[in-house]
Design goal:
The structure is a homotetramer. By secondary structure, chain A is of the alpha+beta class. Chain A has two domains: 2-68, Vcp-like ATPase, Chain A, domain 2 (Roll); 76-289, Fumarylacetoacetase-like, C-terminal domain (Fumarylacetoacetate hydrolase, domain 2). The first copy, chain A, is 18% helix and 37% strand. Chain A has helices at 29-37, 52-56, 84-92, 104-110, 169-174, 179-183, 198-201, 234-241; strands at 2-7, 12-18, 21-25, 44-47, 66-68, 76-80, 98-99, 102-103, 115-120, 125-126, 132-134, 141-142, 145-151, 157-165, 167-168, 189-196, 208-215, 218-226, 251-254, 272-277, 281-289. In chain A, the strands form four sheets. In chain A, strands 1, 2, 3, 4, 5, 6, 9, 10, 13, 14, 16 and 19 form a twelve-stranded mixed sheet that branches. In chain A, a hairpin with a 2-residue loop joins strand 17 (208-215) and strand 18. Chain A starts with a strand and ends with a strand. The B-D interface holds B 6, 8, 10-13, 15, 24, 26-27, 42-50, 65 and D 6, 8, 10-13, 15, 24, 26-27, 42-50, 65. Chains A, B, C, D: Keywords: Hydrolase, Metal-binding. Chains A, B, C, D: It holds the Pfam family FAA_hydrolase. Chains A, B, C, D: It comes from Caldivirga maquilingensis (strain ATCC 700844 / DSM 13496 / JCM 10307 / IC-167). Chains A, B, C, D: Belongs to the FAH family. Chains A, B, C, D: GO terms for molecular function: hydrolase activity; metal ion binding.
Chain lengths: 293, 293, 293, 293
């Protein structure tokens, strides 16, 4: 099963895809995911007569129905430096924070405890076709394409999604104490177009993640990574996320990035970011640059 | 005006103190604070016949009415290294993260951009007489007594409160990337007993903050600082908090700590933390040690 | 436009039919009707892929999607003796209440003030395919097929529907003071399958209303009447309904019956009642007999 | 226990009187009454410092706190002709509806089945100090002072109150089919000031009900009756009310009137109606005359 939502700009409409057919979903999507994880399909209404591919080609400037966030996640958290590449690349950047000889990224990569950080609330997230943002005070903001897992408050995985941990890398690089400002702001996070149930994903460690940054119709960056390169296992990340920290049902955990474009791929107003995960879909989001009032 | 809430363990009851008298408050406390900031007292009901001092002496183990959080804050954020003492003390701790020669704390202290971090949601906060927590995996957790400001989404200050940014210093010290884990967990934040309107505080830069850690009836730590030692002005902190980051009305910003007990003051199960701010009140919270399941 | 709802037994799904196509309806149906009356179509979602006729053939015992009430009406009111036939037939029944020489029905028929009575709340109403009821203490209960008008609190007509003012005629006949008991009980009212907007009805005084009572597959009663025989005009009925009596938006007024089956058509458990109004649709409801506990 | 509510014109505040002390009530009043009937006092907050008698002297024109409805009843129903006096007086009025030789009132008085009628919803009810209304098209409207019982959906009595079944007697007298118009309109029902739990009433059949209609400071009518004269027992009334008719928890049943002022006591704009029931309290309501728009 996969769930998604459409909007007409005023109301949202929620759906479940079951056996290739699209049905209305009459219950809260998180409830439906929990129920599905327990073996029950609940809340299906009528089959709807829509062309999903055609709808996926529309964005927030289209009139009529278009995609939006699959649901409103109460909290989004991230796990960092879970791929070897991220340890390396982060540590290569100019002046890096070090503790003794090692960079803080090298340290966390090798440590038992993962990096876990607060990323977003629902109102800071956007969906497919909706604009992610570059902070007005950032010149170097990058997408971080990741596999997102939807969990219950007890840490059970009830869904997978594509998620973009958009990050103001220049602010983050200046001082690790600026991490929240580089990570949490309006339009800092996109996810969707779907949340896919675990039975459709089977092995989350054999997924191909692809990133393309498109400017004026041309890809200015392309990269990919397999989730088999994820060093921190998802259950380990979840274990630390929920340790003495009760998260609400439907919380999303971003499992870390393994694709790191350089400084020359800094997002600009008007760019389009396209992230694909094999078997999960393709998340496309335009980019807007915010202003500092 | 000052607002507070009591609970009987099942329901909560909200009040406003006006001219020394306690009245029921019939509207949402944040709405009442916004209205008061605009010159109007709203939502008052009957005067209640309670002995506030006697109620302040009770805690979460008392039966009957007792204090709880003054309201449910949608988000709590913190600002760090805003006092000179914090810059110094943090930088003295064993192995500290450095960028070049300077510690990350020294850097942020001198930088234009303050440290801003996500601290808590309502369910992670406790009120007066309710237990703050030490993570099960922390051996060195400290209270951070601070002046809290309640703001609107446009950054207007509508109230002041005493707030405790309880922090797992050992986890934080290990790697700055662990800051969220040291800061955000169940029982990581206490505030209250009251939210006090700006007219009662007048000058937020001339308040005396006092901290006492009490163990078996004896103070094992006492410290104090004046908010005049706050280097980062509150409006500057707020400016960065809300830059491209829409916070909900009623968000609390913790303005930083100027009292830093050492490693020997690590909180233990059964301790009591007492924080006073002149003219604002005294926030008392027992301490419990969580378990790692 | 016409609106309706389906249920899967747990959730309800609301729809609007526009230009012959069925769309999801993302806003409250009463809001949609008010908006439509003001010239705006609002809240449409995706087109749904359903066979309305096939769905109309199902009832409350079917598994899967089926029809239910088009919306939950806050109040349902009735107007009585608005057709000449009702004046006559009611007055012919055995011992009838009289004031002076005239029966109370003759009196009200000729009077300036119409009979207006409270009929039902949402929980006492059923929809297409759902069972209407015969009270456990009634041996002679009849359907009263009527044109229903959906109005706003200011009395504006925003929709038409088929409505069945099921009545325990024996209880009513015993004493006019028993009217509420004959009229108001669980399952006393059915309406639907659709609410149709005024532009689809055009002239409410030229509609053909047909009633069939079906027992064991055979029609044991058939009757019909045209709304042109309605003596009390709808706006006059509404005028008295809302005089000094504020009704909520979405209130339904039943405009009176012009078809009166006799005592031999008394509804029995297992019967099916079928009411058609030209251009509005056909409302089919099974009948169940309640028990007196 | 007795419950009541105050309003400041914008918010309402609910209270419970226990052992002569007034406490805030933190739970829904109907829930509190159900719980109390099951032996548990729930939802009490702080004692409030109010002078109930002084508050009872205020009305809807007073600024500051004043009484309002004790709660919002989902439905109010009435039972008629339950006192012998009502049978007689009603039957004496000019042209009365008769079935055969007997008036409909004489008939219902002697019949097994009582008269049960729908009276009001919450928005049509007022509380102590709030205005009851005379319809714009009625010249002869009278108060009907009654004992009200608050019941659960299963018919259990969880409270008693004073209730005024204000009735447009001229409209009702014209034709029994006009009963709903004489009974149901804006401001047709007042109840309060309190709902009293059954343990405080003990014997509902030994209560003295007193009515005074005051005009320009002088009583123009005074009457009284004891509930021992009630012929229809309350449980019998309830039995018929809920027979095949599910009412919501907190529904009020008016148990009938035994005081019937004549035509010369017709209520006028500016009158005050005062109803007392021994041990239950005194309900005072001003009178306003509505207009026919």
């Amino acid at each position: 099963m996969r769930i998604f939502r459409l909007t007409n700009g005023e109301s949202t409409f929620q759906y479940a895809v079951v056996d290739g057919k699209v049905f209305e979903l009459g219950v809260d999507p998180v409830k439906a995911l929990i129920s599905y994880a327990n073996g029950k399909v609940i809340g299906l209404g009528a089959e709807v007569n829509i062309d999903v591919n055609q709808l996926l080609s529309r964005d927030y400037r289209s009139s009529g129905l278009r995609f939006t966030k699959p649901y409103d996640p109460p909290e989004v958290w991230g796990s960092g430096i879970s791929y070897e590449v991220s340890r390396r690349r982060y540590s290569e950047e100019g002046e890096v924070a070090r503790i003794g000889e090692l960079t803080i990224y090298e340290r966390v990569y090798d440590a038992e405890r993962p990096e876990i950080f607060f990323k977003a609330t629902a109102n800071r997230c956007v969906g497919h076709g909706e604009p992610i943002a570059v902070r007005g005070d950032s010149e170097w903001t990058l997408p971080e394409p990741e596999l997102g897992v939807v969990i219950t408050s007890s840490g059970k995985v009830i869904g997978y999604t594509i998620i973009d941990d958009v990050s103001a890398r220049d602010i983050e690089a200046e001082n690790p104490l600026y991490l929240p400002q580089s990570k949490v702001y309006n339009g800092c996070c996109a996810f969707g177009p779907f949340v896919v149930t675990p039975d459709e994903v089977k092995n989350p460690y054999s997924l191909q993640i692809r990133l393309r940054i498109i400017r004026s119709g041309k890809a200015i960056y392309e990269g990919e990574v397999s989730t088999e390169r994820m060093r921190r296992r998802i259950d380990e990340q979840i274990k630390y996320l929920i340790r003495n920290n009760t998260v609400p049902d439907g919380t999303i955990l971003m499992t870390g990035t393994g694709i790191l474009p350089g400084r020359d791929a800094a997002l600009r107003d008007g760019d389009v970011v396209e992230i694909s995960i094999s078997g999960v879909g393709t998340l496309t989001t335009p980019v807007i640059k915010l202003k500092v009032e």
